[in-house]
Amino acid sequence: MRRSPSLRNAYLILGAGFSCLALLLTAALVISVVWLAELSANLRRTIGGDRAAMEIEFQLIRAGRSHQIFRETGDPRWKQDADESEARLVEELDRARSLPKSPEAAEAFARLDATVEALRRNVLDAPPGQGVARRRDFLVADADAKNYLDVIEANADTTLDHAEAWSRIAIILAAFTVLVVFLSLALVTLFARRVIYYPIVRLRHGLEGHARDQSIRVPEAGPIEVQAIGADVNRLFDRLAAQRDHQLTFLASVAHDLRNPMTALRTSAQLAERRAETDGQRRQAERLMRQIDRMNRLVEDLLDVSRIEAGRFELDFATTDLREVVRDTCDLYEEVSEIHEVRCSVPDRPVCVSADATRISQVLGNLVSNAIKYSPEGGPVDVRLMTTDRWAILEVEDRGLGIPEEDRAAVFEAFRRSKAAEEGIPGVGLGLSVALRLVRAHHGEIEVESDVGVGSTFRVRLPLADAEASA
């Protein structure tokens, strides 16, 4: 069995990997910088040696020319110029001697230095009348100077080649570093999405699915920490489901126990209504009948919830014209309240759906009953039937208390009521929960729009039957 990763271990591995990668890249960059600095220093030294070699060659030529003219003319100015050239020559030799050199450059400089020393001794510093015969030393010295210059320039070319090579290496290394960084970020992103993000998203989807269907559980997948969260959430869901089952079982038992007494009470109320001799007795009997009917609806809601939760709820689907359902519901509630006006609006053509007509009547009746109940000051209650290309739409609109925004998400939950409706209005919060389950059993949707103090509109969407049945 494959072991799930741990976020802690994953972060440690990623941290260690990035640290090693950073060390390797840093070492490579440091080596490149050191080599480039060394090459730059070599290039500067080479350029210095090249300048010295060119100056030595120039001063040799100048000294030779000035010495020759002085020997021929005896003009002291040329003697002075020859001495200045010799002094500059000695100075450049000393500077070149102090510069670091390659073995080839050192050998070429040694020959040049020896040649110049012989030239100075035999020609430049020779007594008058003896230096002309040794002018060939100028030619030898000039050849050695050119050879030294050639060696220096060859070294400069080699250094430049090395510098260019290392520059290319540095560029490649920089590009490789950028590529590695981007690839690493991409891998980390993919790892985070696969190991962290997707399990959390699935966990969130599981929570959202549980809000719609309480049988859904969140997946226990992903890192160990996310698995632990999922397991804890599922255990919590299981405990809540067990508590809800115990609650519904108890309520179902109570509802079953209440049915027989309620039947007896209804029979007695009907008998009292038939035997009433005065209008007062008749009104009391009617009021008693309404309360008994309300209690019967509550008992039936309790039984419906228990059947739905237990999976023993069956529907008798048939092609149904919703216009008849709307008209019957409006007729039923038309005289329930003297301060409410139930207004009905249906299209001229049949609106056919595949549904259990009794259960759809139950849903619509529940919505109309709530509209009357939560409009304590009275007013119109509009019941409308409309159609779109795919849906039949039932709307029940009241001008009552309205539902606060913070309570709308829970209004369809069992035993949940709006805080504004809990004071002075009877009910236990089962009607809308049953309506939601019945509508979903018909593959439909139910929603609410509401403004506090203005009223509420409940909207039920049911899929239309085929075009032939709707025509």
Automatic annotation (TrEMBL):
Claim: Coiled coil is one of the keywords in the record: yes
Broad class of the protein's primary localization: membrane
GO cellular component: plasma membrane
Record's keyword terms, sorted: Coiled coil, Kinase, Membrane, Phosphoprotein, Transferase, Transmembrane, Transmembrane helix
Histidine kinase domain: residues covered: 253-466
Localisation per UniProt entry: Membrane
Membrane-spanning residues: 12-37, 169-192
InterPro entries according to UniProt: HATPase_C_sf (IPR036890), HATPase_dom (IPR003594), His_kinase_dom (IPR005467), HisK_dim/P_dom (IPR003661), HisK_dim/P_sf (IPR036097), Sig_transdc_His_kin-like_C (IPR004358), TCS_sensor_his_kinase (IPR050428)
GO MF annotation list: phosphorelay sensor kinase activity
EC number: 2.7.13.3
Top-level lineage group: Bacteria
Catalytic activity: ATP + protein L-histidine = ADP + protein N-phospho-L-histidine
Keyword set includes Transmembrane: yes
Coiled coil: 278-305
Pfam families noted in UniProt: HATPase_c (PF02518), HisKA (PF00512)
Protein name: histidine kinase
Source organism of this protein record: Vulgatibacter incomptus
